[in-house]
UniProtKB/TrEMBL annotation:
Gene3D superfamilies tied to this protein: 3.60.21.10
UniProt keyword annotation of Signal present: yes
The protein's name in its UniProt record: Sphingomyelin phosphodiesterase
Cross-referenced PANTHER family: SPHINGOMYELIN PHOSPHODIESTERASE
Annotated organism of origin: Aquatica leii
Top-level division of the source organism's lineage: Eukaryota
Residue ranges of domain Saposin B-type in the record: 58-144
Length: 588
């Protein structure tokens, strides 16, 4: 068997050599002449044609990424112009992604100066580094990477009536250009916009309340959401808003437009919730360019992200005490003592997102945020406070930088006794991330809850969550996910969305979410009975017909289970491969 494996591997390497050679030649020709060689499409297609499973596909992707990066880095040293690099990047984007000209061309125009800054200012830049960060989720590696670490003071985490209701809103993705009856099946990353044109067929018309296809949310749907929340829940004590206000139209963002739409959304939240405090955090879509959070040392106004931090420090101050200004201005994060004994820590985890290409310039604890987190938790521990952590990107997401997740996990393990819950967004999935003790795989030490998303992007029903929190340690004793069937709402323009409670955690899983031990049993049960994972998957997407009708096979369900229990990428990748090995054993 082992022999067979080597033979196959050897064959791949041999047969892989020629296409890679062609790729290199054709890309070199492109860069050197500035003109796209006529055989570029064919050569790239041919090389990916060999990809018959995910591992192979990843291997090819990493190789192509390294070839491209090497060529670009070297060519830039020889004076490659911005124009040629832009044209080159646009062509590759169109060929290698599913996106069309608008998305690729617009986004690359927006990010190109940042890319050049990174290449020009990182003297020891290697292709391996570029690919290992941007394509971490495809297992690209950089053997020369030097891990960094956070100083976490030694110590042992201690373990630790009125109920409080907390609303969790996330990933609203307001699209100011949304237009009912526009084209919902365009080639770009986002459709259903006035600029997408009128739908060619009736069945392609964007719906009045939103659309399951690649579309974000119209304002009328956002107004309805907030009306619903105020009407349905008479007692709301606070609101967690875990980021992503701006739409997916990444090819057409500007600082000014982002500020206008953020302002509009925050004003709407204030008008709707009045005296109730909202605790907002940043999403990856709030920056310009989208996803880009340059490190502190980048001070040129063209690239610096200070404009956003300063703007939000001001805009969020309607809900936050003034002592939060300093850290928001520094890195978009803050902490608030909500009442004696209870603290919220709000992070800007977008720095760890592997699409934040500034990580290539410098990935070491951006904005000193994790060190601050550890220090802040130590102080909270001394003061016997319990803590909720808000963070846009879920811990251990396959697209959150491995080293950042690893250090984050160390911090959680050290202080899990006072962290009574974590709240995330970003994936648009109503999901759980379970932290196991890295020294004892049976002990659950913490859980992160994802609010799902209000946006339907892509194929989900709109949603929000309401948590019941006990007053002493601020543990979550239950929560509900609310939603509506978008197809029904869109059937008749006179319809209003018909909101309903989709499920409550306690009723569905049979225990309270503050009972950490039971999460271990839940995962055990799920690994023996994939039907339970399938039910979890449907709830992840708020039980939309699209989600129900999507087939998730055993490998797909297994990966969902892996995602639930992995809080750093290395664990996820090991867990996902375990299934492959089992499958191979059975099939041989
Ligand atoms: C790149 O340049 C070529 C001309 O060399 C042009 O035909 C092509 O449209 C350009 N591509 C993009 C994406 O701008
Ligand atoms: C970084 O590179 C840009 C060119 O892209 C240059 O203008 C700038 O001065 C460089 N900054 C530093 C700090 O070296
Ligand atoms: C780009 O965004 C602005 C602001 O939202 C909008 O007015 C304009 O129509 C958009 N352009 C395109 C081509 O989508
Ligand atoms: C949502 O509504 C549509 C149209 O009324 C219906 O066909 C569909 O079955 C509903 N979806 C679910 C999951 O109930
Ligand atoms: C796991 O399954 C057992 C046996 O079917 C059941 O008694 C238990 O309640 C389940 N536990 C969880 C957390 O789902
Ligand atoms: C999800 O929708 C299906 C089809 O309409 C329905 O049978 C099922 O009960 C729904 N699940 C929940 C949790 O409401
Ligand atoms: Zn989002
Ligand atoms: Zn996001």
């Amino acid at each position: 068997m082992i022999l067979l494996y080597f033979c196959v591997h050897f064959f791949v390497q041999i047969s892989g050599q020629r296409p890679y050679g062609d790729v290199e030649n054709v890309l070199l020709e492109f860069i050197q002449t500035g003109t796209k060689p006529t055989n570029l499409d064919n050569v790239l297609q041919e090389v990916f044609f060999n990809a018959d499973d995910t591992d192979k596909e990843n291997e090819i992707l990493c190789s192509v990424c390294r070839i491209v990066s090497n060529i670009v880095i070297n060519a830039r040293k020889d004076g490659l112009s911005k124009e040629v690099l832009s044209n080159f990047s646009k062509e590759l984007c169109i060929l290698l992604s599913d996106f069309g000209y608008e998305t690729c061309s617009g986004y690359i125009d927006i990010i190109m100066d940042s890319i050049l800054y990174i290449i020009d200012n990182k003297s020891d830049l290697t292709a391996e580094r570029v690919c290992a960060i941007r394509f971490q989720t495809n297992n690209c590696e950089d053997a020369a990477y030097i891990p960094w670490s956070i100083d976490i003071p030694p110590g042992k985490s201690q373990n630790s009536n009125d109920k409080v209701n907390v609303i969790h809103l996330t990933d609203i993705h307001y699209d100011p250009l949304y237009e009912p009856k526009s084209e919902a099946t365009c080639n770009e990353i986002l459709c259903c916009e006035s600029t997408s044109g009128k739908a060619k067929f009736v069945e392609n018309e964007a719906g009045f309340w939103g659309d399951y296809r690649a579309c974000d949310m119209p304002w009328n749907a956002i107004e309805d959401l907030l009306k619903q929340i105020r009407k349905e829940h008479s007692k709301i004590d606070r609101v967690y808003f875990t980021g992503d206000i701006i739409s997916h139209q990444v090819w057409n963002t500007t600082k000014e437009d982002n500020k206008v739409y953020i302002t509009k959304m925050l004003q709407k939240l204030q008008d709707s919730f009045g005296e109730i405090s909202v605790y907002p955090i940043l999403g990856n879509h709030e920056s310009h360019p989208t996803d880009f959070y340059p490190p502190t040392q980048v001070t040129d106004t063209e690239f610096s992200i200070e404009w956003l931090f300063r703007f939000l420090a001001e805009a969020w101050s309607r809900w936050l005490p003034t002592d939060t200004l300093k850290t928001i201005r520094k890195g978009g994060y803050y902490t608030v003592l909500v009442k004696p004994g209870f603290r919220i820590i709000a992070l800007n985890s977008n720095v760890c997102f592997t699409y934040n290409l500034w990580l290539i310039l410098d990935d070491k604890d951006p904005y000193g945020q994790l060190q601050w987190l550890s220090d802040t938790l130590l102080e909270a521990e001394k003061n016997k406070e319990s803590v909720h952590i808000l963070s846009h990107i879920p811990p251990g997401d396959s697209e959150c930088l491995q080293q950042w997740s690893h250090e984050f996990r160390r911090i959680i393990e050290r202080f899990h006794g006072i962290i009574t819950a974590q709240f995330n967004g970003h994936t648009h999935l109503d999901e759980l991330r379970v932290f196991f003790n890295s020294e004892d795989q049976d002990e659950v030490v913490n859980v992160a809850f994802n609010g799902g998303s209000f946006t339907t992007f892509i194929g989900f029903n709109p949603g929000y969550k309401i948590y019941q929190v006990e007053n002493r340690y601020n543990r979550i004793i239950d929560y509900e996910q609310w939603t509506y069937n978008l197809s029904t709402a869109n059937e008749d323009p006179n319809n209003k969305p018909n909101w309903f409670k989709l499920y409550s955690f306690k009723n569905t899983y049979g225990f309270q979410p503050d009972n950490l031990e039971r999460f271990h049993w839940l995962l055990q049960n799920m690994s023996k009975n994939f039907q339970l994972v399938e039910e979890y998957r449907r709830l992840q997407g708020r039980n939309s017909s699209i989600v129900i009708n999507t087939n998730c096979n055993k490998k797909c369900l297994h990966d969902i289970l892996c995602t639930m229990k992995s809080v750093e990428y290395s664990d996820l990748s090991v867990c996902q491969n375990q299934y492959d090995m089992k499958k191979i054993k059975i099939e041989l």
